[in-house]
Amino acid sequence: MVENLMQEFMNVFQTTDEQLRAFFAPGRVNLIGEHTDYNGGHVFPCALSIGTYAIAKKRNDDTVRMYSMNFKNLDVITFSIKHLAYEQQHGWANYPKGVMDMFQKNGHKLESGFDVLFYGNIPNGAGLSSSASIELATSVVVNGLFDLGIDMISMVQMSQQAENEFIGVNCGIMDQFAIGMGKEQHAILLDCQTLQYTYSPIAMEGASLVIANTNKQRGLADSKYNERRGECERALKDLQQELTIASLGELSPELFEQYKYLIQNETDRKRAKHAIYENARTKEAVRCLQANDLIGLGQLMKQSHESLRDDYEVTGKELDALAEAAWAQEGTIGSRMTGAGFGGCTISIVQNDKIDSFIEQTGKIYTEQTGLTADFYVVQVGGGARELTFVR
Hints:
Blueprint: H1 2-13, E1 21-30, E2 42-43, E3 45-58, E4 63-68, E5 77-80, H2 94-105, E6 114-120, H3 130-145, H4 152-167, H5 174-181, E7 186-191, E8 197-201, E9 207-213, H6 225-239, H7 253-259, H8 266-290, H9 294-310, H10 316-327, E10 332-338, E11 345-351, H11 355-370, E12 375-379, E13 386-388
EC number: 2.7.1.6
Active site: 175 (proton acceptor)
Family: Belongs to the GHMP kinase family. GalK subfamily.
C-alpha cells in the first residue's frame, strides 16, 4: 500500500522519493455511548484497521500542495501557509487547513510548506469518522515533518478545535480521541468531561465486529447534530436550577427521574433522558466485556439503538431497517447504529460461523425495505494515528 502511494505521490507532484515520509490515522467505530461525548458522559470507541494514509514531503517555501486520491476531480489544491482560510471550493482540504491553523494559533510554528498526498479507505459519509481521521493524519504529518514534539492528546484537542472553529461543526472529542489514542485489540472507555481513559481488551471468542453502511449519504454539518446539542444544553440549564452539575453526564438515571420535572420542554426532556441513560449503558457495557458477557453487551447495544430512535430521534428509516434486520438474524449478538446518525452505519457483533448468512440475509431485507444496497465490512481493531516505518 505505502509503496503504491509513494509512487502516486511522485507522479502527482513530479518529484523523487527522497525525504518522503508516510503516516496513517485510523477510522473509528463506537461500540456504545452515542451522543454522550458533548454531554460530559462516557464513550466506548475503538480504532479500526482502515483509515487515512498520508505521504508527505517538506518544501523550501510557504506553499502547501494537497492531493486526495479520493477526490481526484478537485486535482491539486494549493495555498500558502500564511493564508489558512476556509474556502468552500477547497472541499475536503479545509480539514487539514483547519488543523494547520490551530497548530499555529496554539504556538506551534510551521517553518515551511509541504506537499502531501492523502488516501482514505474509510467510506465517505458512512459515520466512521473520515473527517476526524484526516484531521489526525494531518496532525501527525505536521508534528513529524517539523519535529514539533507535541503529545498525542494535545493533537487530539487541536484537531477537535479545528472541526469546531474552522469547519463549524460542534463535535465532541470522541472521534479525534479514539483515532489519536487507539490501541490494537482494545476499546477505550473515555470520560469526555475529564478526558480520563482506560483501555479495555476486546476478547470476542468466536465472534467479530461487522459494520454495515446504509449508503445513505449525510453531511454532519448539514444534519440536526447542532440542534440536538442545543436541546441538551437547554435541558442542562433547566436542571441546574436545583442541581449543581456541569454536564448531563454527571447524573445517574435515578437522579434524572427524580429531577426531570425541571425540564420544561418535553423534547428537551427526551434528549436528556437518552444522554443520561446511554451514559449508564456505556459503563455497564464495559463491565459486560470484562466479564466476557457478550449477550449482556448485545442487549445493551439494542437498548442503545432504541433510545437513539425513540428519545434522541437520530436514526431514520435506513438505520432502523438495518438494525432490525440484524436483530432478526441467527448469530447476531448485538447491533446498533453508530456515529452521529441520519444515515451512516450500524455496528454488529456476529458469531463467526454465521457472518456470511448474516450479511446475505440482512442485506436482502434492507434492500427490500429501502431500495438501497448496504455494504458490509468485517473489521479489525487497530492502533492509533502514527508515522509508518517502511523499507524502501
